[in-house]
Amino acid sequence: MKIDLNSDLGESFGRYQLGNDSQVIQLVTSVNVACGFHAGDPDVMAQTVVTAQKAGVGIGAHPGFPDLQGFGRRKMQLSPLEVQHLVTYQVGALQAFTSKHRLHHVKPHGALYNLAASNHQLAVAICRGIQQVDPQLPLYGLAGSELIKAAAEVDLPVAQEVFGDRNYLPDGRLVPRSQSDAVITDPKLIAQRVVQMVKKRTITTTDGSEIKIDPDTVCVHGDNQQALAIVKQLRQTLTQAGIDLQPF
Question: How many angstroms from the chain centroid is the CA of residue 213?
Answer without folding.
Answer: 16
